[in-house]
Design a protein that fits this description.
The structure is a homotrimer. Chain A has 15 helices and no strands. By secondary structure, chain A is an all-alpha fold. The radius of gyration of chain A is 19 Å and the shape is globular. Chain A starts with a helix and ends in a 22-residue tail after the last helix. Chains in contact: A-B, A-C, B-C. Chains A and B meet through helix 14 and helix 15 of A and helix 7 and helix 8 of B.
Chain lengths: 328, 328, 328
């Protein structure tokens, strides 16, 4: 085992899996392994897209001599892989898997993800905050706009998240599937088993992270129920996923975990849901998906604000790891 | 009286009124009192919207343990109240006063105004400038987009500011009402008495502020006359209000007052009018109002530039009060 | 000659020509002189527009007591002149040369260019990067939107850069004209002699700059050929010009020149082409031209990233001059 860990191919794969874990704030290769299995169960091409994109970005970052620690912790694997996976899922009709155009897009995404991640990360670090998934969303929108508008102007890859008018009754399934699919939606997968494995991957690295994720997702689904939001949309997990990410991020990852940061994280979860819906409305005419933009904007904003409040205690960027490491 | 000032309810109301004064750069509760009366004369619901929004944001900021001095000076009362008032005026048909949905919107606006104000304020302070009304405009546009597009896609709350072709002759009334209504337009009210009371509130705290406001508004109306802009639009005050705010801000509030900053402020006033019109053109198809965005963008830009010129002398952010305190 | 150089009118013209040289990163009055002749050959009104805009902005900057060295090096002549020239070319039908409206636009552009250049430059310098042409593009889009949408909503000044379907065969002319016109396109001129003179102006000040420009433009045209891009569009120089500017900027101007920065610059050139095409797609429905936005965004991003890589070595902003001054 010790020998295995010294093997450079093994280490490279470990970096890719850490990158996958980073998507849900879990810098842990075992978490990443469980998550990639979960994704593959739902869509094996999506898992391949992630690994190839992550590998390209990691190699480019190494070549550019980016910070070695950051590379090894999967910072670029996160960006390149996530962009690759989302592109693959969103463009699976326009750009079929394993074609030349597909490889070109993965290369383009993987290469550009590197300066975008470093550049925005550097700029945001001046404000002591993380850019989270912002580089990925900007890059993805640019690529989607390029592919969609050039080839087929009438096309749209925005999934249905707005009220359809075909409302159904809320049952226990709405809650269970609505939350589990929320985990899957982070990777654009609708499969409760995938969601359950992602949740397992989170719990494995951080119990607080797992609990906050459930609380965040649960709060969002509960609010949707209280407001009578379309049941089918909720059950697809679309309502929960921005809130899940925000709750993990604010509830112990970026802020020292305690009762106050828990409250702060739940307020953030609700705002993230609302910002996501507003952005979905705004992006819909462009045919672009809102994805995790609610989480990205609200988390950035609440971390900027957090630095001016005594209510919560931000963890310095260079010490970010997992909630359990920063309990007072 | 001394006893009254120690009363915490009295102090809370003082904070709300200071917040109202801050909209026109006058951190003075008596100015705020005169202005709220002026607004109530034109629309009592608008004044109630301001006070409730201001109260919610102030309480949330206290709960988050934001900087005590900033809270007391009405920084959050300004944001929450201004958002509440503008929402109330713009959505008075879609969301009737004193309904459940109305309270929900005020709560949403008041709560989100807090991290947005702290967050953008923190980010802008790294460049030594104030975010002025930017958090309010961003929040308002997001809320309006959410409400309008979800319910009635064909709807628009953008007021008529562009040329209508129904031009009339300019008289002395165009100038007097055009300027006075410019003060009212800051709160989306068209009532010369309201405008006169707001002007009185400004003069009460700062004569320089009042004079700059008149100069800024007058210059804008004069330019509109010189260019033959539609008379009815001018008389509604739409042309003057961005210039009024810019002239107060650059003419003594953010820059040490002297002949050069007066010139700089008047250049800013003209640019603010032009940027406002451009933004109105750009936002019109989205059905969103441009409001004070001309003032916000031009003031931010000219304060960034001011730090690189010897022509004018910026006042450090933590010393901002009123022009008379910084006369050399 | 020594006497001539002390002449203030001569010095003023030198500043204007340095400003023109700055557009292609060559702070050299003789380069500027050759380039203005090149532009005049294609369009004498464009060269006049540049000089008047540059003069207005320089005088305003002097009046504002901006940094004397920056003024003299043509920083404001660059902004005001470039905005003036681009406005003149893009609006030549709507706003005829040498009319009152034309002078008003040049004044507006020249004046607003000053705080915009200082302001964005100041903000970007906090991240140790240059704003390059961003102030010019933002100002230009605002002016174009104002003029176009107010007068004629159906109008568009966006040139044809997207696939037309009328493809022709690539010949040696595609390559030669495609690259030479790429230099002309920086000033919206399609004339190979103009392009050749601009290239000469670059070479005169920096051989490395000239070689990088040719490499960048050549790579872009080569890629267009490999992907079978519409030949007529390529021959117009539209494909090359963002890549030319990016290659000069990253290849020795902002980064110490060596084999690695050459590679980094060529990656940047390709990304700039792609970002330009994406932005052209996005701006097309608004009727606005993408111009050099690909160069601006990619250069800013890759310079942000460069500060975190050991692969390349950024030159401090205050030491920027020409590649040959920073060879190790």
């Amino acid at each position: 085992m010790a020998q295995l860990q010294q093997n450079s191919i093994f280490q490279f794969f470990e970096t890719l899996l850490r990158g996958l874990g980073n998507v849900v704030f879990q810098n842990n290769a075992l978490s990443g392994l469980i998550i990639i299995v979960g994704i593959a169960i739902s869509s094996w091409t999506a898992s391949v897209d992630f690994l190839i994109g992550a590998a390209i970005a990691t190699l480019v970052a190494k070549w550019f001599r980016a910070d070695k620690h950051a590379v090894k912790q999967g910072m670029f694997a996160f960006s390149g892989g996530y962009v690759g996976l989302l592109m693959g899922v969103l463009l699976d009709k326009e750009v079929p898997f394993f074609t030349g155009e597909w490889l070109l897009l993965l290369l383009l995404g993987g290469i550009l993800a590197v300066p975008l991640t470093s550049g925005l990360g550097f700029a945001f670090s001046k404000l002591n905050i993380s850019a989270t998934a912002l580089p990925i969303l900007l890059l993805l929108w640019a690529i989607l706009a390029g592919v969609l508008y050039t080839n087929l102007p009438q096309n749209s890859v925005a999934p249905q998240v707005l009220a359809t008018g075909k409302s159904a009754v809320y049952t226990w399934e709405t809650f269970v599937y609505g939350i589990l699919n929320g985990f899957g939606q982070i990777f654009m997968q609708v499969n409760p088993i995938t969601g359950a494995l992602i949740l397992l991957g989170i719990f494995l690295n951080s119990r607080i992270g797992g609990l906050m994720a459930l609380l965040g997702g649960g709060t969002a689904v509960f609010l949707a129920w209280a407001l009578g939001y379309d049941e089918p949309v909720v059950q697809q997990g679309v309502i929960a996923f921005n809130s899940i990410l925000t709750a993990i991020g604010l509830g112990g990852f970026f802020l020292v975990f305690n009762g106050r940061s828990l409250v702060y994280a739940l307020i953030g979860s609700l705002l993230a849901l609302w910002v996501f819906l507003v952005m979905a409305v705004l992006l819909n005419p462009l045919g672009l998906p809102a994805l995790s933009i609610g989480f990205v904007l609200v988390t950035a904003l609440m971390m900027l604000g957090a630095q001016t409040y005594d209510f919560v205690q931000p963890i310095p960027l260079e010490q970010l790891s997992k909630p359990e490491d920063h309990m007072s």
